[in-house]
Specification:
333 residues; alpha/beta; Rossmann fold; Dihydrodipicolinate Reductase, domain 2; 4-stranded mixed β-sheet; 13 helices; 14 strands; 38% helix; 25% strand
């Protein structure tokens, strides 16, 4: 059986995680990496993997002949531009994570993918992605709102998308953002109150920012707290730190999250609840592992003659698995 040929587009923490996840598969192979900074990537990967500039799409598509390209750029600037451009030439998978702009990203990718006859699997990872599916299932089973909470530990969870958004601000050299769930909000949901929460009622945000020399700290602070879709609705705490302090205090990429739905069943209103909790020692590696499974699904969708944009809600779970239908029936049903 021929292996699914995969290209990684963008080689940061998620790209590295994708490479590691692909190495654990038997049905997929990494055939190349494309980057805006190919010289940097070549120094890191050596001769093990060919690397080409991402801008010359025709050249690397011809050279690597990918079945799927996994887009590992940021949601704020990279994916909205790269996605519609690259899907004109190759099937793509991305981890776009700006919930407030999800319909716009879907429709842009759907139009581009249908025009080219390709498949674009969008917004997949653990949230959006796994949590999107869990929210949908819980709502379907109980008929109530399902809530997602992130950063359940005291330290909170490191958000790659929000950290990336911070680093796009003028005057910011480096940054990390931690999300903290509000414990009382979690308990309200568990009690079955089904509160009408606004985003800021469920989480707070904590930012550690290294400013460039001479940067206007108050301007950076104002830009952060007013950033729509990321920080504007939330109580946000900002710490300006040195690079050394950031490296020390914010080492690693831990994250976790919880989907909860509480309701009742039957005429006597028996209590019922659904909870799904995931804990990740490495947020980028977790996202990468989910991306790789969805790359498998994208290749299968394309082989089946499908085109356009798809989310985790649109894909049969069997398409994500390397196992055959007979193996799934025998061992997982």
């Amino acid at each position: 059986m021929s292996k699914t040929r995969v290209v990684i587009a963008g080689y940061g923490n998620v790209g590295r995680g994708v490479r590691q996840a692909l190495a654990k598969t038997e049905d997929m192979e990494l055939v190349g990496i494309v980057s805006r900074t190919p010289d940097r990537v070549k120094k890191e990967v050596g001769d093990a993997i060919p690397v080409l500039p991402i801008a010359d799409t025709a050249a690397w598509v011809a050279a690597f002949r990918p079945d799927v390209t996994i887009l590992c750029g940021g949601s704020k600037q990279d994916l909205p531009q790269q996605g519609p451009e690259l899907v004109q030439s190759v099937c793509t998978v991305d981890s776009f994570d700006n919930h407030s702009q999800m319909p716009e990203h879907f429709h842009a990718m759907d139009a581009a993918a249908k025009a080219s006859g390709k498949v674009a699997v969008i917004a997949t990872g653990w949230d959006p992605g796994i949590f999107s599916l869990e929210r949908t299932l819980a709502n379907a089973f109980l008929g109530v709102r399902a809530y997602g909470f992130y950063g359940m530990t005291e330290k909170g969870g490191l958000s790659m998308g929000h950290s990336d958004a911070l680093r796009t601000i003028e005057g910011v050299q480096d940054a990390r953002q931690y999300t903290h769930a509000i414990p009382e909000a979690v308990e309200q949901v568990r009690r079955g109150e089904n509160p009408d929460f606004k985003p800021g009622d469920m989480h707070t945000r904590e930012c550690f920012i290294v400013a460039k020399p001479g940067a206007d700290l108050e301007k950076i602070r104002k830009t952060v707290v007013e950033m729509p879709g990321y920080f504007a609705p939330y109580k946000t705490t900002i710490h300006f730190v040195t690079q050394e302090e950031l490296n020390s205090k914010c080492a690693g990429f831990p994250h976790d999250g919880l989907v909860i739905a509480s309701g009742t069943t039957g005429e006597v209103h028996h209590s019922a609840s659904v909870e799904y909790h995931c804990r990740w020692g490495s947020n980028p590696e977790a996202t990468a592992s989910v991306l790789v499974a969805h790359a498998r699904a994208a290749a299968r969708l394309f082989k089946a003659g499908r085109s356009g944009a798809f989310t985790s809600l649109d894909i049969p779970p069997a398409y994500l698995s390397p196992l055959s239908q007979e193996e799934l029936l025998a061992h997982w049903m």
